[in-house]
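hey so u asked for the seq, here:
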Amino acid sequence: MILLSPPDWAAYQGRFIALWTDAQYAYALYQPAELVAVALEGGTYPALPHAGAGWYQRLAFDLHGFKATGAADTRPAIEHFRAADFTAPWPEFAAPEVEGVHQVAVGPIHAGIIEPGHFRFSVRGEEVLKLEARFGYAHKGTLGLMRGKSPRLAARYAARISGDATVAHSLAFAQAAEAALGVSPSGRAIYLRAVMAELERIANHTADIGALAGDAGFAFLDARFALAREYICAAAAMAFGHRLMMDIVIPGGVAGDIAEGGAGEILAVLAALEAELPSLTRVFEDYASLQDRVIGTGIIPPHLAAEFHAGGYVGRASGQAHDARVQPGYPPYFEHMLHMPVQQEGDVAARIRIRLDEIPESIRLIRDMLFALPAGALAAPLPPGSGMGLGVAESFRGPVWHWLHVDNGTIVTAFIADASALHWPLLEHAATTAILADFPLINKSVNGSYAGVDL
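ran it, structure tokens below
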């Protein structure tokens, strides 16, 4: 950690990732893993000029009451009617001042099984002029629940930040705890973690591609990809005891070994998906009516993706060649060359193609890792030490970061940064490049986590 003066803090340049506060400092994280801090003065710190800093500064005020001086956006981030000073007004959504505009409100309660989030569209006919998204309607208090607990106990909360990325969040949390306490997991634990992370990636990519096809009216692709995800989840349950592999990655290693026959079950399921994937891809590419719905829809231009430092398929579909498995990187990916697909168009079609390209790469990685799976202990004990630690994992939607301050084996402060925090503002822009009826496709193609930003 580098302690900066207020002017140096405000002028610091880099690829911004996240911002948070504790009782003494405001912290800012920059790619690849640069952590800087500034001392709080009277409960304030200088606002940062980076595009993605706004939501984090709002969250810091809502959680702790620490104010970013000079911040342009001071709306509540969570619990919209109960900000830290208990004076939050009823949310207002300003529409563009042009003739013929009306607003369409969607959520926070949605049809179907989905997390709460509010979307306020300002439209003129079918044209979307502005989208304002608000989250934080189901504030879980995850960071508060972690405080005062050992890393082993708090790992349970990390696994439940966002259920579709439970392995990635558990891995980033475990890495942060291990860095804080000076613990190194065994090679076997590292490889098993990576196998689970890549399985999680494939399961979510297949689910997303199918759901996108379903939103566009292609039930066949939806059914085939949904079946593929089901087979993957069933194989994960057989191999690791849980369909989502929740609570298997823990600080120090893994909670259990891969079951006898589990590797064979995983490889068989992946072989079946690999065999069918080319024909499913041709269906996606050859049907003009499907391509018409996704090409040129929901555009996130490369310059905007770069400004918000977008990661995952959102960033890579818009020209951003970034992957936390490569930079800053973590084992065992140093031993396995990683192919990173990149597109430039930044539309729904590009985000689908990135997913389609990542599936065979993850299949290859899982095969290589299972064949190279070393022997060794499953978990190392955690000493009752003290320190600060930073951990990162590349989830299916982008990097997730965890930071822990541990004192005598107990968590004093924690913070979590999900890739979605930098992707939701990009969705607001993408919606304005299409008509209102295309928003379900655009939203699903970005697939930000509501829960991941509701800390």
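The first helix runs from residue 6 to 11. The mean pLDDT is 93.
lmk if thats what u needed
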